[in-house]
Amino acid sequence: FNLQLWNNYFHLAVAFITQDSLQLENFSHAKYNKIQNKYGDMRRLIGFAIRDMWYKLGQNKICFIPGMVGPILEMTLIPEVELRKATIPIFFDMMLCEYQRTGEFKKFENEIILKLDHEVEGGRGDEHYMQLFESILTECAKQHPGISSPVESFVSLVRGLLERLLDYRAVMSDESKDNRMSCTVNLL
């Protein structure tokens, strides 16, 4: 097992699918259709490959927690539904992996909260992501009763944080200082 090689693979693949020139939702409808018809959405293909390779790591997954939390989060925030559905379960696997090793998933939790703040502030994330994140992780937790309670608490925490971050992002363009201050207080 070569940690650096795997690390390079994951970082390169995430950098590929998050590059600006592949963010099809930013293009005009005509350009979007032309690219979709000619090439398809390459982000989905690479995202599925990342997911498949993650699950092939076996017991070595723990080596990538918390280091890969940020890049995986960045990938799951791409507004492509099938990509999100395929890659959000990686978060549960990360939690499960850390939980089995240490009895908790604090490293994962701290890293995702830190990175989520940065990503949403950068304009990524939406209401649909929040709902999908919650439903997928809750469903995964139901299949592992030993970890379901802490996962549900984590999901609730992230949902609250995401709601506040999205509100904060929305009011930053608002002229009312009171609205911005109220939102800032809620976020803190």
From TrEMBL:
GO CC annotations, alphabetized: cytoplasm; plasma membrane
Pfam families: TPR_DOCK
Listed InterPro entries: DOCK (IPR026791), TPR_DOCK (IPR056372)
Residue stretches spanning the membrane: none
Domain annotation Dedicator of cytokinesis TPR repeats region: ranges: 1-136
GO MF entry, a single one: guanyl-nucleotide exchange factor activity
A biological process term (GO) from this entry: cell migration
PANTHER family the record matches: DEDICATOR OF CYTOKINESIS, DEDICATOR OF CYTOKINESIS PROTEIN 2
Name the record gives this protein: DOCK2 protein
Organism: Peucedramus taeniatus
Source taxonomy: Eukaryota, Metazoa, Chordata, Craniata, Vertebrata
